[in-house]
Amino acid sequence: MEEYNSGEEILFNSDEATAPIKECIEGVIGGTDYNQNKINQWTASIVERCLNHFVKQGRAFKYIVNCTIMQKSSAGLHTANSCYWDTATDGSCTVRWENRTMYCVVSVFAVAVA
Amino acid sequence: MMGTSDTYLIRPNHQEKFKPAVVKECIREVVRERLTGVRYDDEEVRQLSTTLADSIKDRVKKAGFDRYKLTVQVVIGEQRGQGVKMSTRCFWDADTDSYAEDVFITENLFCVVVVFGSYYY
Q1: How far A47 CA lies from chain B's nearest CA (Å)?
Q2: Torsion angle, alpha carbons of A49, B117, B10, B22, to 10
Q3: Which residue of A has its CA nearest to B121?
């Protein structure tokens, strides 16, 4: 019987994931300024693009992609994660991006399926 | 990694299913306990966000979702009337996996907590 992952490693590589996530962000909000009307659309596109990118790799993972966009004011923001999973196979990747008028933080969590 | 029995189960039974309402209660209790009366202070919030995430994870684990892998995300920010938007998309098994969230806002800070539960077959 054929094994599902013949030779494919089940390990989420967080370093390799940063570049594609950055590209997804740049693709959507690259040259733009904070706009209250468009922000729903932006967060939805960023999150869908990132998710599609990872799903296309066809690996045996469940994905959770989270995106936060905040207008630049003098306010501070902190993000923290705590996970209960199998550290050998599961992983996460968080990317911070900013431009003149806003901050964007995208987190991707990958959880192995058995 | 997971409990010893019933590894042949590929779907959670009714009692074991990830219940967003129960988890939301867990989140609410921990957040209100830790953040009522707290002012936003950069150093303190840095520590607070990580400890909060760990406490919530431990609390949810105790609630008894044994076959679930948990991911807890805590976002705490200073409230100065700026705009913030957070969205999430998940690629998972909608029959077994779910999430719970809660938002806590005070005069000078806001805190968003999301807990994702994904079933381990």
Answers
A1: 6
A2: -140
A3: A114
B85 touches A43 (CB < 8 A) = yes
User: At residue A10, what is the residue type?
Assistant: I
CB contact, 8 Å: A10 with chain B? no
CB B118 within 8 A of CB B69: yes
> Cβ of B74 and A77 within 8 Å?
no
For A41-101, where are the E strands, in sequence order?
Answer: 61-71, 77-84, 91-98
Tell me what pLDDT residue B13 has. 85
Report the 10 Å Cβ neighbour count for A20: 17
CB A94 within 8 A of CB A110: no
- Extract the tokens encoding A110: 């990958």
pLDDT tens per residue, range B10-64: 888 888 889 999 999 989 999 999 999 888 888 899 999 999 999 999 999 999 8
Q: What is the pLDDT of residue A3?
A: 46
**Which pLDDT value is given to residue A109?**
93
Q: pLDDT-based confidence at A94, cuts 50/70/90?
A: very high
Q: Which helix (H) or strand (E) holds B103?
A: strand B98-105
What is the DSSP secondary-structure string of B32-83?
HHHHTTPPP-HHHHHHHHHHHHHHHHHHHHHTT-TTEEEEEEEEEEE-SS--
| pTM, full prediction | 0.81
pLDDT at residue number A80? 92
Q: How many helices (H) and strands (E) does chain A have?
A: 2, 4
Q: Residue holding tokens 């806003």? A: A102
